[in-house]
Amino acid sequence: MKARRHMDVSHPEWLKQIGMNRLSSTANPRIKRLRQLRNARHRQQTGLTVVEGFAPLTILHARRYPIKTLYIAPDILQQSPRQLELLAGLAPQSEEIVALTDGLFRKISYRENPEGILALIQPQITPLATPAKPAPAFFLVLEDVEKPGNIGAVLRTADAAGCTGVIITNPRTDLFNPNIIRASMGAVFTVPIRLMSNQETLNWCRQHDIRLAVFTPEAQLPYDEYNPPQRTAFLFGTEHEGVSPFWRRHGDDLLTIPMQGEVNSLNLSNCAAIVAYHFRRFYQASDISSR
Question: Which domain does 213 fall in, by range?
Fold first, then answer.
């Protein structure tokens, strides 16, 4: 059963009415299309992705993001006042609402414990504008990072710390992978982002007087002894390989995070969080967090 935008969501029985006729078969064309979106190539071909869970959907609601289809499983939903309020808010943003049985929703869910709500959207990157000179700015740069969980966690940190934006060089996964959306808790929709090659990133930073501080274990300068300039991009490589020789050659400053234990590597997202929260105090006075 589909509910169009004109449905009266203020009516106390509206959710029950939607749930009276639920899709139940994996053979349904809608469900087949949803399951195809697990494949990156299909996401790129269609320009669509799936957003699941109340946290990222709350971001979509706050930003009045258009939703093509809102899928719900009434039996799974914890029908608290807060959740019902969110559902009522999302309904006018949705072209249609489709109810699924509990079992079918669990089959299409990306989560082990689904929350009973999922949106089909056509995502758009929040563009990272050229920072005006001489305004202070600080960025997080990720080189060749492949794991969706790491990318999502760094975006979540960037949002919380008020970074000017995030640059992803040589991306190995599409930005709107549902697992990135989940790990970012919706920050992928709030943080300004650029996707560029290494050379494009270097050229962009040089053009806009942004100093490149590159993190690598062999560096001699600890991050907490570094006095950052007014405009800085902090660059991280992968956990296994670190930064490429390109950035060891072209980075303006090489920094390290000292480690006292026997394990010689922190998780990438932990490193980014340490750095973002340490250096944000240098930029707070300029209120760059307003982006």
Answer: 137-282
Q: Are residues 147 and 202 in the same domain?
A: yes
Report, in angstroms and rounded to the nearest whole number, the Rg of the chain calculated over CA atoms.
Answer: 21
- pLDDT tens digits for range 180-232: 999 999 999 999 999 999 999 999 999 999 999 999 999 999 999 999 999 99
> At which of 70, 97, 121 does a domain end?
121
Q: In what order do the strands lie in the sheet with 231-236?
A: 193-196, 165-169, 137-143, 231-236, 211-215, 253-256, 221-222
Q: Residue 267 is which amino acid?
A: N
Domain co-membership, 142 together with 32:
no
Beta bridge partners of 211: 232
Three-state secondary structure along 110-165?
CCCCCCCEEEEECCCCCECCCCCCCCCEEEEEEECCCCHHHHHHHHHHHHHHCCCE
pLDDT in tens, 122-152: 999 999 988 887 788 999 999 999 899 999 9
Residue 201 inside a domain? The answer is yes
Distances (CA, A) of 35 to 30, 119, 135, 206, 208: 9, 13, 45, 43, 43
| Long-range contacts (CB closer than 8 Å, 24 or more residues apart) made by 10-15 | 10/88, 14/88, 15/72, 15/74, 15/77, 15/79, 15/84, 15/87
Q: Of 92, 121, 150, which marks where a domain is finished? A: 121
- Tell me how long the chain is: 291
Please state the domain count of the chain: 2
Query: Is 233 in contact with 138 (CB distance < 8 Å)?
Result: yes
